[in-house]
Amino acid sequence: MASPSLMDNLFQRSLDDIIKGLRHQQSTESTFISKVIEEIRREIKTTDLQTKSTALQKLTYLNSIHYIDMKDLNSGNEFEVFVRKKAVGVVFRLFEKYPDAARVCFKRLVESLESSDSQILSSVVGVFCELASKDPRSYLPLAPEFYRILVGSRNNWVLIKVLKIFANLAPLEPRLAKRVVEPICDHLRKTGAKSMVFECIRTVATSFTEYESAVKLAAVKIREFLLEDDPNLKYLGLHGLSIMAPKHLWAVLENKDIVIQSLNDEDLNIKLESLCLVMAMVSESNVVEICRVLVNYALKSDLEFCNEILGSILSTCCQNVYEIITDFDWYVSLLGEMSRIPHCQKGEEIENQLIDIGMRVKDVRPELVRVGHHLLIDPALLGNPYLHRMLSAAAWVCGEYVEFSGNPVELLEALLQPRTSLLPSSIRTVYMQSAFKVLFFCVCTYIEQKEDMTLEVSDLTSKGECSESSDLASAKAPVECDQDEGFNPRNSSQSYERPFCC
Amino acid sequence: MIKAVLVINTQGKPRLTKFYGFLTVEKQQELIRSVFGVLCSRAEKVSNFMEVDSIFGPDSRLVYKHYATLYFIFVFDSSENELAMLDLIQVFVETLDKCFRNVCELDIVFNYNKLHSILDEIISGGQVLETSSTEIMRAVEEISKSESASNSISLVPKTVSGWRSR
Q: So what's the ipTM on this one?
C-alpha cells in the first residue's frame, strides 16, 4: 500500500463523514470499509488524543454494524484512560468474532489486570468475564490473578465480575473451588451491597453446591431477602431458591410458608417464581394437598396466572408417565374439576391426559367413565367453547369403555342430544363414533340377554357364567364381564374403528 | 454484556434506542413494541424486572425504571448483575439530571447528541465503562470543551466535512 500522503495525514475523517460515505456507497461498501479500517489502524497508533478518540469512535460504530477484521488494535502506547477503556470494550467485540485475535492481545489484557486504575480494571475484568463464560477452560490459568482481585479489591463492580468468572472456573477444578469458597463466604458475610450479596448467593448456589457451610450461609441470606418488603429483593430471593432447589430442596422447604404466601403477591414475576418453587416441592406424598392449594389459588387468580397454575399442575403430574400419581381416581376427578374452572384454557392438554390415562390405567376406567358421563349429560356445558376438548375426551372415553358405564342408554341419549349441534364438527365426529359404540354395545347386550333367556327357558340349569341382569330396559353391563364370552365382538379395542371409521 | 438500552415514553414512543448487536430496523421496532406491550401492563409498586426470553432470546434479562413520563430500560445477559444494572440506570438518570438541571422528556428530545455522548461514556460495545456519575460528567464536560475548542480553530479543520463547508 502506498505510503500515506500529506492529504491523508492532515485530514482525518470524522464519524459523520464515515456515515455519510457509507450511505453513498451502495455497491463498493466493502472496499470503502477496508479503506476506512486502514485509516483507523494508522490513526489509532498516533499520540494525538483527539485523533485516537475519533478513530476509536469510528471503530466502535463500524463494529456494531459490520464485520471487521482488525488485528493491530491494542497498541501499547495507550495510557490515556478514556481511550483505553473504550479500546478494551471494542476488543471484546472483536474477540467474539475472531477468537484467534484473543491470543494476539492476550498479553496486553493480562497486563491490564494488574492496573491500579479501577476503571481499567473494571473494563478488563468485564471482558474476561464474557470470555470465561464462553470458554472457561482457557482462562483457568489466570485463576491466581482473579484470586488476588477477589481478596484484595473493594470495588463491587469488579468483584461481581470476578465472582461470575469463578462460577465458571470452579466446576473445572475442585482444588480451585476449595481455595476460593472461603473468600466468597467472607464477602457474603461482610458486604453491605445487596448486589454483591446476591451475586455471592448465586455463585455458591450454582458452582459451590458441595460446600455445606457455604450453602447454609447462602440460605440464611436468601431468607433475609425473602423477608424484605422490597419486591426486587423478594423476587431475587425466590430466584436464588430456585437455583438452589435441584440439589438443596431443604432450603426451599424451610421457606415453604413464604413461598406459598408469595403466590398471592401482586407482582406477576414473584408469583411465577413461587409457582415454580411449589412445583419443585411436589412429591408422591404431598401431591394431593399441593394440587388442592393450587387449584384454590387458580380460582381466585386472573386469566394469565390461573392458566400458569393449571399448566404447571398438568405438566408436573404427567412427568415420567405420571410417576408421582398413586391415586388415579383422584387425578381424573381433579382433571374434571380443572376443566370446569372459568378461566381454564388448557382443554387440549386435559383431553390428551384423560385419554392417555384411560389407555394406560385399566383400573381407572370405571371412574373415568363416571366422570365423563357426568360431563356429557349436562347440556349447559355444550355452550362453553373452552370445554369442548374436555367433552371430546369424555365422549371418546365413554364410547371406548362403555362396559363400565352404569347407564349406557342415558349415555347414548346424552351423546345424541340436540345441543350437540353447538359443537365443532371434529368433536361431533367423536360423539357420533362413540354413539355407535354405545349403541352397538347395547344391542349386543340385549341379544346376549335374549339368548340367555331362551337358554334359561329351555334348560333350567343355568349355563351362563356371566351374571346378566334380567332387566332389559336398563341393560346393565356387569363390570367384570369376561370380554370373550358370548356374542361379543369386542375382542380388540380396535374392533369398533373398523366398520364405522372411514 | 448489555444487549440494549431503551428509553420509551409512557405513550410508547421511543426516545432513545441503542442496540449493542446487529439487528435489522424492523427487528428493532418489533422488539421495542413487544417490550412496551408488556411494560405498560405492569403495576406501580412491583419489582423492576421483566421476563423477556420470548422477546430477546434465551439468557436475556430486563430491568426498567419509571421516571415521570419515561421508562428507562436495560436489556442484558447473565454476565451482568440485576441489581447492579438497576443502579446503573440510576447513575444514567442522575447524570442526565446533573447535565440538564431537572431533566424532563423534552430535554431528551432536543438534546439527542448529548444523550448519546453520555450513554457512550457509560456503556461501549455492550460493556460497562464507568459507574460513577461524577466521572461521567467530567468526561462529558471534557468532550464539550474540546468540541468548542476545535470549533474555534478554523484555520485547518480536522475533518473533511469541516473542510468542505468552507
A: 0.87
| Domain-ending residue, one of A73, A91, A115 | A73
What is the extent of the structural domain holding A30? 1-73
Cα→Cα distances B28→B14, B33, B77, Å: 11, 9, 17
* Residue at A41 is within a domain: yes
Asked if the model's pLDDT at residue A314 lies above 90, the reply is yes
Residue A483 lies in a domain: no
Rounded to two decimals, the pTM is 0.76
Measured between CA atoms, how close is B162 to chain A, in angstroms? 9
**Is the residue at A251 inside a domain?**
no
In contact, A449 and A470? CB cutoff 8 Å:
yes
The backbone torsions φ and ψ at residue B97, rounded to the nearest 5 degrees and listed phi first, read -65, -45
CA distance B37 to B40: 6
DSSP calls for A4-49: PPHHHHH----HHHHHHHHHH-SS-HHHHHHHHHHHHHHHHTSS-H
3-state DSSP of A163-178: HHHHHHHHHHCHHHHH
Question: Which residue of B lies nearest to A53 if distances are taken between CA atoms?
Answer: B143
Please report the pLDDT score of residue A60 as a whole number.
64
Beta-carbon contacts of A3 under 8 Å, excluding residues fewer than 6 positions away, are none
Record: contact B125-A119, CB cut-off 8 A? no
Q: Does residue A63 surpass a pLDDT of 90? A: no
Last residue of a domain, one of A44, A73, A102: A73
In terms of Cα–Cα distance, which of A314, A297, A313 is closest to A305?
A: A297
Q: Does B46 touch chain A (CB under 8 A)?
A: yes
* Cα A374 from Cα A377, distance rounded (Å): 6
Instruction: State what percent of residues in chain B have pLDDT above 90.
Output: 48
Q: How many domains does chain A have?
A: 2
